[in-house]
Design a protein that fits this description.
Radius of gyration: 24 Å
Number of domains: 1
Largest sheet: none
Number of strands: 0
């Protein structure tokens, strides 16, 4: 595997706390030895956070559309019968 992919895999294992993740002591040593590793891990963590937020927003939008389909017609029908 390419070194960049191995580095990304290592970061993902730590962030996601997979069984293949390093121990806390080994991770700390890696962070001390490789100055850019902490910045790369922080960037990856921010990326995951952004993806989670985007997924939540998409889910909310889909739920709003479903709600509008299910109940939007009912409200419109009621407004025609009993206008305010």
């Amino acid at each position: 595997m390419r070194p960049e992919l191995e580095r990304l895999q290592l970061i993902e294992q730590q962030i996601l706390n997979t069984p293949a993740a390093l121990s806390a002591e080994d991770w700390t040593v890696r962070l001390l030895v490789d100055g850019e590793l902490a910045a790369d891990a922080e960037t990856q963590q921010q990326l995951y956070h952004g993806l989670r937020l985007a997924g939540r927003q998409q889910l909310r939008q889909e739920l709003r559309q479903i709600h509008a389909q299910l109940y939007g017609g009912w409200r419109a029908w009621l407004r025609r019968i009993w206008p305010m």
